[in-house]
Amino acid sequence: MDTEILFSKIKQELDTKLHFLEDKPEETSDSTLRACWHTASGSPRSAEEANKIPLAELTKKQIDILYNLVEKRLNNIPLAYITGRQSFMGIEMLADKRALIPRKETEILGRKALDVSIGLAKEKKWVRVMDICAGSGNLGLAIAYHNPKTVVFATDLSHEAVEHSKDNISFLNLHGRVQVEQGDLFAAFEKEQHYRKADIIVCNPPYISTGKVAKMNWEISGHEPVMAFDGGMFGTKIIQKLLAEAPKFLSPNGWLLFEVGLGQGPFIMDICERTGNYRQIQSINDANNNIRVIMAQEKS
After folding, report:
1. pTM for this one?
2. How many domains does the chain have?
3. I want to staple 296 with a disulfide (CB 3.0 to 4.6 A). Which of 55, 169, 259, 278 is the partner?
């Protein structure tokens, strides 16, 4: 079948049947079909990257594969898990059910942390970064990829997420500057060599309250690891622990940057202030003027 005719036929079905999540703005009927198409052709791409590459002509076998991929998507399997790819800060990364799918909103945190690292790199030979609750490793890997003067120490509580991060390290060929260990928050780095050494600590912690996790869209709660979302009764349990433990690992005047949920910003900024461990406590807002990132400098 002609490529244009086949594309139009399937897209019409997606237009009427597919529903999209607000936290995945890059996914549309068009980008979803293109991503599935490239994957069926043997050249998997994320929704974001799929739009940049011409569609290949598919064989009959590849058309069958395409229909199978589209059916999975219509059954609410996340697109990134179907294609095995997700774009983050302009980088194609591996994606599968072992870790949370990186979201566009987390690029606010990633880009701010990258900016801080670039500023510090003007004064230091190497900038040491810790990526806590690393998941797929997207934050630390993006910083390392875009700033060659960084070394990254990543960690996650989930063994599966750590293995997934290692796969992404290999995929991006960043073995020399990024390493990942399994552990609860900073537990993997409880060594003298890490105390007071991190110039930057980044974290995208679980921040959704336990009661709300079960009410999340099935595409999320039914497929992505619950551990990556559940932040305890009020959604702030992990963040409060992060704020308490980070000073032990931050270098003098080092920066802590982390993502927060909608509506949590003012409360978390107040907690930062009350710890007495931080100064220059700042917030970064999204396009809708919601606080999504908090950054604070170690108070020597």
Report:
1. 0.94
2. 2
3. 278
